[in-house]
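User: structure tokens for this one?
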Amino acid sequence: MTAKPNILFLMADQMQGRVLDQDHVCQTPCLDRLAGEGMRFTRAYTPNNICSPTRASIMTGLLPHNHGVLEVLYPKMAHMHAILPDKAHFAQRLSGAGYSTGYFGKWHVERNNDLERFGWQVDGGQSSASYKALIEEILGEEPLQPECDPAVYITDPPGYGPHLLCGVTERPAERRGMGIATTLALRYLEDAVQKAEPWCCFLSFQEPHDPYIAERSIYEQYQREELPPPPNAADPLEDRPGLYRRAQGIWKQLSEAQKRQARACYFASISEVDAQFARVVDFLEAQGQLEDTIVIAISDHGDLLGAHGLFFKDISAFEEIFNVPFIVRGPGVERGALCPGRVGLHDLCPTVLELAGCEPIDVPDSRSFAPLLSTPAAAGWDRGFAEYYGNRHRLTQKVVWDGRWKFVFNGFDYDELYDLDTDPWEMKNLAQDPAYTGQVVKMTQLFWHYAKRTDDAPLVQTLYPALRLGKVGPLEEEW
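Assistant:
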């Protein structure tokens, strides 16, 4: 074993945490293996329910209001979606401590696509010359996104154009985005494992993000399965924010058969992702380096996939989006453990640096969960905090977890309160029930605690009468 552990990140995009449940129809043998040989965090969550803010939080350990990337990056808005220049990144610390670092696949952290600036010595991101060269090597003149048949498109309302929801292709994963990123990562590792210095490899996929595209033979395996809609698919959302019901209208154009096809493609895509992860894990095992490597398997957020009558993410704060796959395997990690600790993706930054023995990035937004890796039942990990600022359509939403309780502070509508023990599918909003006023007050106070601790000044300093939307405000002396 090297003095410092190697570190491997395996990241999917828009993958539900529930697909790793033991009785789930989705087949993920590699991830199941990693969980069986390591630890799965069953209540892990994303600090933001869309790509770019979350990815920036993973790198910096900061919540979005502190790192500056508040929504999915949009290159034409030059003044937005850039990480604040004084924010440190964990790869910079690793690189400074003698690690070889390489990043491959989807970046989407911020608009500059300058990975070396953030500590990644080898740039295999989708905008890099090496990624583009490998596409040409493998595909020639073929487009990266393959033709699909059958395919389902979202076409309404008129004026937006068609959007591919899901489709079936003859092209195998090795000749699509996930396979290209994996091949680049393996080429890096073939060199890295021969050297004495420790390495950190980050492999990041676009999949199973929409459009859900899957190779035919794997899709057909799921087509033969029973794929019922989620238990909350028919939720009328009558006691939830009006925006949720408005968003439901988008998906009413889909038939039940089309929704089922989307589920089959989504699960098949995850199985393909899993097989690509296995290529890397198997390589490291063959090289005798797997036992010296901390393997971290995650997704940046989930997908509603028909829950509450909705698909994708963005609008709503339900667990299908916020609960993410989260597995850690490696030296010092208890084997075959399920950890109920509520850890966030932003907690990865301080954790990785502690495990690597590097200079920490000490910020109030996150903390190292390294102690949980040997003691998964340790107390003090019942709470979590996330935030969302909209995506093109501006809004304010803060999510607070405290044990069984989940509270959603909505700056655009009435709030939400769920008892996840008795209502895991979030069908009943208790926030407007007088019997739960005390719990709403308690959760609102906890929200203000997080906002003040992480210096969310625009909210903490908002005392203006027209903006007093909480059950209580931030002034603790008045509680």
